[in-house]
Amino acid sequence: MKWACFITGTDTGVGKTIVTAALAAALVQRGLRVGVMKPAETDCPPEQGREGAHDAQLLRWAARCTAPLELVVPYALPLPLAPALSAEEAGVTIELAEIVRCYRELLETHDVVLVEGAGGLLVPLTAQQTMLDLAVTLELPLLVVARNVLGVINHSCLTVAVASRRTRVLGVVLNHPVPLDESDPAVRRNADALRRWCPVPLYGPLPHLADLSEEALTAAGSRLLSAKLLEGMALDIAEGEGIAAEAAAAAGEGIPTEPLNDAGA
Question: Strands 3-9 and 142-147: what pairing?
């Protein structure tokens, strides 16, 4: 059995990387080999290249992933723009086929692969393709990260509505990328409102993580993981279809679920 999902967001700066790292750390704690991927990362200093891809580096560390950076972050782009624009400015052509190749290599040697997009669902990856197109090409279900602020109901419902037309949406993670403002009535009511009006499960709310230690990330990821979430991440891959037989056998029959919390815990 293999598990994978594509982590997207309702916007940039909602905490996708932290949520992805937290899930990776929690899955590692359960004895799984976790691969991570940031197909295109921008704002990478040109003199550092992939070494300066800080999101990808954090994901790789949290997952204890030893895969080459070339697989984890196929495109490290200099300007802090949408990947398609940053690539144009740098004279780089982003090839979907190259991203697919890297993903498949990671999947062959890991039990779980977490793919983090850039920005929101419809951010352009190339001149013709968006982050949603990439998730659909990889045949991955989506997990949506949303920031707990006024407006999150609309942002989340719009993202889920658009995504659901083309792929499965596992749920929404309500996140606090900045410290919680308990005086804000929207912050207090958003979780219940999303459970009421957003047609997918809600995971969280996840508290603000000022400490990005392995222990803190693992604890946060464990708050999000549930048997239902992992079941949704299971890939329907026939033996031999792009997955080495020995890798499939090494993945085992199932995933430990007893320590996991229910959604919304």
Answer: parallel
Beta bridge partners of 4: 113
Report whether 14 belongs to an annotated binding site: yes
Q: Is 13 labeled as ligand-binding?
A: yes
Tell me which of 2, 30, 33, 38 is the catalytic residue: 38
**What residues contact residue 147 under an 8 Å CB cut-off, 6+ apart?**
10, 11, 13, 14, 15, 175, 176, 177
Show the 3-state SS of 161-179: HHHHCCCCEEEEEEECCCC
Q: Tell whether residue 221 is among the known ligand binding residues.
A: no
- Please give the biggest Cα pair distance in the chain: 55
- Write out pLDDT tens, residues 212-255: 999 999 999 998 888 788 888 998 654 334 333 333 333 333 44
Angle at which helix 152-164 crosses helix 185-197, to 10 degrees, equals 30
**Rounded-to-integer distance, Cα 49 and Cα 41, Å:** 10
pTM: 0.88
Decide if domain 3-250 falls under CATH 3.40.50.300.
yes
Q: Known binder of ligand: residue 155?
A: no
Per-residue tokens: 113: 């692969």
Q: Is 34 annotated as a binding residue?
A: no
Active-site residue flag, 228: no
Peptide bond into 78 cis (omega under 30): no
Give the tokens for residue 174: 């309500």
The full set of domain ranges for the chain reads 3-250
pLDDT of 147 > 60? The answer is yes
- DSSP 3-state of 204: strand
Average pLDDT over residues 9-29: 96
For residues 174 and 14, give the distance between their C-alpha atoms in angstroms, rounded to a whole number. 9
